[in-house]
## 1
Amino acid sequence: MAASRVVALLDVVLGYDCNLACDYCTISPEMRKRAMSTERVAREIDRAASRGFGDVAFTGGEPTIRADLPALIKLAKRRGFEHVKVASNGLRYAHAPYLDHLVSCGVDRFNVSLHAMNDTDYERTVQLAGTAQHRRLAIKHLVDRGLDPTADLIIKTDTAPIIDEWITSLVALGLRRFALWLVSLTDHNAPNTHQLPSISSVVPHVLRAFDNARRGGYEVTALHIPRCFVPGYEEHIVHPGADLVTVVTPDDVFDLKDSRLGGGVKAPACSGCTFESTCPGVRRDYADRFGFSELRTVYTRS
């Protein structure tokens, strides 16, 4: 049997500005001023295409506030990228013609950050009144068009206990793919240590979500949780940087596997673990907050 083809992804952080101001956002006011020019993004797309990259993602900040986003998507398709993803808060998708335009330009993968479960908590989290109704309409437009978006849900101290309930409410709206991200204590959000729960406290809620996904036939994956925490559920874990991903930002170009988003910190107890060769460990901000005691108690040797 032939080996499956590994497709490299170009992840383009167009800029750090956003139309929201989430209370857990890592982007500082100074960072919001930084963005890539259209010309530089075009050069990076051309360079990646010449190197054989197959997929591209446009992220931010908030990519949909960029007037040049449709043109950049068209360029990526002309340069031969098979899949084009946009990772967004999705509010502009409440305007159906805009969503349809992105699809006509070539977007075939959508990730939408949903921030909180109910309308009140959502508007409190994003710090902008009147946005909850736009979020609901955006979800409806994505589902009605069969675009099968991935809902990005942030695991924080307040959302961890309701993560399964949150997913269930979104399944009722027609969503079928969910990615769980552990909140980050970097840059602007570094002082808010109370937001980051321990992985061991999160695991029971995440396992319940995994079980219900198996029964319900939908997809739930978690990032930033080492596989040793979830024996029997390892296939639900996705590690950032495990795939070939090059990230281009206004400040730098790097491989995701080498970034702080991909983990990279391991405990002495990780030596000899069944997943030692494939697990990046925990993120530095997590290790600084909680240390390694959890890993010492739950890791498994081969």
## 2
Amino acid sequence: MGLFRSFQNAGPGIDPNAPKKKPFFRFWELLRRNFGKLLSLNLLYTLLHVPGLFSLVVYLETDNKFTNAMTLLLLAVQFLLEGPIMAGCARVLRLIVLDKPFFFGEEFRKGFRRNFGAAFLYWCLDALVIASLLAGHWVYPQIAQATGNKAIFILYGISVSVGLVLLFMNYYIWALQVATTLKKGTVLKNALMLSGLSMKHCLISTFGIALMLGLIVLLWLVNSYFMFLIAFFPAAFIGYLVMFVHYPIVQKFVINPYYEASGEQNPEDEEVIPEEERVFTDRGTTETPVSTDRKKGKVIS
């Protein structure tokens, strides 16, 4: 916009060889630049959870012979879609973190469709552990109270530890799935290894997720109307945070070593075009801005 200065004036340009910003500043720069895409992604994520939300409405607001069957059917549909939805989101978030141009709907569709089977398997594993944790939270205290044996909480602690390990693995599972062609077992193995190699990064992501969820709860306590924001922001922001923190680890230990060993061009790097084949060379800040000042001439009246 040329409100305060003309966009036609020559400027210093942008240096194409400028060093990358520090991760903290790059995080906020990419967030600002892709804020609209993240809003769209969160809205799509919310819309694809309509079956689950509608199942709650059916269960609470209806009371007839079809209520339970309809509720279970809607929950089954949501369960089937949950993993592929996360795969589609992961593909979009990866391209945002890589700062690559892309078509939003097309990339989400590719991530959803191409990873459907594997994503469903990963989600089944997540759901099994979540169900185990919920059951343990309810059962173990009752067993300890009934038997008077506090040692039962050791098993509870083990189940919580397994859930925490799986959470850390999830920081890598989806990125590995959408960025590589590894088999499902190899993806899980690499996710486990990477989570062990990057404990600090896992703790940063976990703290960021807890902070975002805490903020949502705080806003809900202030005014319940703030829950409307859930449809537009928190899920996409959490996904962006996780992808930004952990995808460089995937690049460092999985993607880059593969292309270095094979000698192939890494598609995530900018392809270097030989000087003699270039049609245009961006000189950025190496050129001197052209002066546009003009002296006023005499006016003949």
## 3
Amino acid sequence: MSDFDAIAVGRRVLAAEAEALTQLSGALDDSFTAAVETLFAAKGRIVATGIGKSGHIARKIAATLASTGSVAMFVHATEASHGDLGMIGADDVILALSKTGETRELADVIAYAARFSIPLIAMTAQPDSALGRAADIVLCIPDAPEAADELNAPTTSTTLQLALGDALAVALLQRRGFKPQDFRVFHPGGKLGAMLRTVGDLMHGARELPLVSGDTPMKDALLVMTEKRWGIVGVTDADGCLAGAITDGDLRRHIEGLMDHTAAQVMTPGPKKTAPPAMLAGEALALMSDPAPAVTVLFVVEDRKPVGILHIHDLLRAGVM
């Protein structure tokens, strides 16, 4: 029977990489701030580059930056030497990844950056390497042993590059004041895109609003409630503001002599749960699901006036749930 223990190996790898990440966190210094400010100030694009496993990480970093509001792209270091250098402009910033900093395929990128005074940010474990010496800013990753140290296959080093890239992206998006509404622009598809849609995108408009004034006889209020089919009717005051709402529960509480009352006499004043048009769909779902109390319908209110209505089924159809 083999002595191989897959779980033990897995735990050893994860522990080694976690320790390296802790070292990386503790080693962050002013160069990180300088990198964020340089990327923030870029008038052109952020060009991430590398080769091999570092190239794969550079491509992912470029994608993360692009999805969080930065104009970013990936240029393969080898392809750069065969014409793709022309994709890099004088207003761009180059983010070059190489653990050793001696990757020969980066030589043309380094020379190009120097020739056209393009800011060069290096991500490397060797600040005294050719890449490190040429860079305007060096982001050092710990020269920690790879998880498969007997093979020296890129494992821990690429984890550190990936994590440092994420740190740059998050710091940069906060520096930009990037908001969830902005994030939605770059993520229109899938569940994430649905969660980032707004109530205003999904609501039913004024024509479908079940509304009556406070002095409306309950007979007429019930007709509106039945016609609109929302199971609720909103009650507005003289200024058109939402003063209350009538639900099935209100009808049951006033069943005796119901038809002798007006809408204002039956309504529950001031609905506890309303939503502005700008509220994210994910937030609206959380509001509806909150058991204090949970609801299936929300009036959409702007400046205290109802402008639409949202049913939980609308969120379901949009893919939020």
## 4
Amino acid sequence: MTRDDDPLKSHDGEAIHEFAAGADDAGARLDKWLSERIESLTRTRLKALIEGGALAKDGAAFDDPSWKLRAGETIRLTVPAPEDPVPRAEAIPLDVVFEDDDLIVVNKRVGMVVHPAAGNWTGTLVNALLHHCGDTLSGVGGVARPGVVHRIDKDTSGLIVAAKNDKAHQGLAAAFSVHDIERIYLAIAVGAPRPGVGVIDAALARAKTDRKKMAVVNAETHFNPRRAVTHYKVVETYGRARAKLKGDALASLIECRLETGRTHQIRVHLSSIGHPLIGDPVYGRGPGLGGLKPGEPEADRAIAAIAKFRRQALHAAVLGFTHPVTGEQMRFERPPPGDFEALRMALAAL
């Protein structure tokens, strides 16, 4: 058993606590049990760590802090290295789409993390917003993630809104919580879903084998499922003439409208029905498309474009909401960045 004052240390500064539940521990609530063993962490902090994927039970990812322990279970908690409690303002250029006294809408570039975290303490959207907005953003929604009410992945481009005062933050957060936000993404995926218009209603949770990944789970049997709903529509198909089966497509441009907004939702949902995003390093199938044979100019260009595209082909194209202070209906739309469009054009030529 690892003592609180002597946890194992990983190479990146994480503290790893390991325990085994004995017969006397059976029936104890997990987060409370851990709080009695790790004096440096509050029960609230432990609950957040568990729900955030920092814990493994018997070697598998586990995110239910209310779990009643059973004798013999092994618990491993990985506590991230301490963060800088106050993100620093940095003069980072932003593509500002809209701004007033209450909120700011930004077209986030590929490669920018939304808020500081382990491994990304600087260069984030929050660092840039603190410089751009100055004192108006300080402390709104908490010092660690000021102004942030939602996020998009580092390598996903597109529209994101941040609040500049508490009233706007509370209003936007409430709208997101009841899914009263219009969010439309464009994705380029392997193959094309059938039918071309549909709904994926599949609960998500942390993957058992990798706490950094999400997975589709059975909502009736999983201990902590998150309902996730994606409405999709195929906009364009590519490479039908080269597909092995008549009527199939090698790839497609898909419009995805989020009803809920779970971590990696579109990426996991499309992958779960056999159409992972091109370039997705986590949920994809690796480079290349079946049916593309080198030697033809169009095929060679498509192969080169796919090999060059080293991120998930996903762009947050539309963001719509009711202004939390004025009540005005707001709707913003931005086209995908150049790398996305280059990939689409190469595939469209097949």
